[in-house]
Amino acid sequence: MTKTTLLATAIMAVAMAGSGVRAATDDFTTFRVMTPELALDLALAALKDCRARGYQVAVAVTDRFGLVQVVLRDRLAGQHTPDTAVGKARTAVSFRSDTLTLAEVTEAGQLNSGIRHLPGFVFLGGGVPVEAGGTIVGGIGISGAPGGAEDDACAKAGIKAVEDRLLM
Question: What is the pLDDT of residues 138-160, one digit of tens each?
Answer without folding.
Answer: 999 999 999 999 999 999 999 99
